[in-house]
Amino acid sequence: MSNVYYLIFTLLLFVAFKMYFNVARKYNIVDLPNHRTMHDSATIRGGGIVLFLAMTLYSLFIPHPGFFFIVGISIVGITGFLDDLYNLSGKVRFPLQVISILCILAELQLFGIGLLLLFTVIIIATGTLNAYNFMDGINGMTAGYSVVIVSTLIYVNNFIFFFISNDLLIYFLLSLMVFSYYNFREKAICFAGDVGSLTTAFIVVYLIIKLIQTSNQYGFILFLTLYGLDTVFTIIQRIIRKENIFDAHRLHLFQVIVSKTKMPHLSMSMIYIIIQVVINILVLNVIENPMMKQLIYIGIMLIVLSVVYIILKRKLMFKIV
């Protein structure tokens, strides 16, 4: 019977996207090209509102996750959509993002883990929300990257550590795949917008924290390696250049590569996706080893990726500037 529900859910998503496109065209909810964007034609923005509504409505009909999850996803989703429409100040967005992360911690009953660890989780989780928002810059990136993460989580849930209802993972994956149909193409029909990137990030953060809580294996955070590395190094670069890290920019590695080499957006997205797939496979192969061995493997992987990142970006940046 579940397969029938999955099919109905998918068909309803396609209908909802078509309805949103009509509304967006009527009220001119579009992204226009400018010096900070990576697209060259007007494209419907905020398409992620459908993903937000789908996952929020689904959550209302299941016992877990519960009330605090729904409150948290509602905060980031509504804030993201308002930001798509009105360009909200960071002074408004950031506190609300922190509150949404607190909702995740409340849902998972994690306030007793200790002040230092709690603070660390809040910083990393809030940073992940912003990383997703920053990295949503080219066609296929957010949806494709998230499909890799959720697919990996489904594998983990079924073959390594059962940590959550499979239905939640599958409905989330279906939502991402339907969005990909409209976004993962040379000329995207719509962009996720802040509502889509923040909603996706919120659910991914919830799932990974839940997995770590259940398995007591912190290495699963590496399912976000590429987004993490690119965001952290770009923030460092912007701080060195004395720039406002919350302003829009084109300094992420994928943006620099596309700008310099004119690589097609989908090719660039596929590179990130494939690299993260390889990383996830490596993580799955070491996660059941003793902790010391895990740390050695993880440390080597992060060092290698960091060195490659820095060398490649410096080489490209010197040619651009």
Descriptive overview:
By secondary structure, this protein is mainly alpha-helical. The protein has one domain. The chain has helices at residues 2-26, 48-60, 67-86, 90-107, 115-135, 141-159, 166-183, 193-215, 225-240, 253-261, 265-286, 291-320; strands at residues 30-31, 43-44. The protein has a two-stranded antiparallel ribbon with strand order 1-2. The longest helix has 30 residues, at 291-320. The protein is globular. It starts with a helix and ends with a helix.
Keywords:
two-stranded antiparallel ribbon; mainly alpha; 321 residues; single chain
Task: Provide the fold topology.
Elements (H helix, E strand, L loop, with lengths): L1 H25 L3 E2 L11 E2 L3 H13 L6 H20 L3 H18 L7 H21 L5 H19 L6 H18 L9 H23 L9 H16 L12 H9 L3 H22 L4 H30 L1
Antiparallel strand pairs: 1-2
Helix pairs in contact: 1-2, 1-7, 2-3, 2-7, 2-8, 3-4, 3-8, 4-5, 5-8, 5-9, 6-7, 6-8, 6-11, 9-12, 10-12
Q: Give the helix level as a range of percent.
A: over 70%
Shape: globular
- Number of helical stretches of at least 4 residues: 12
Biggest sheet character? 2 strands, antiparallel
Strand content: under 5%
Which stretches of 5+ consecutive residues score pLDDT under 50?
A: none
Summarize it.
The chain has 321 residues and is mainly α.
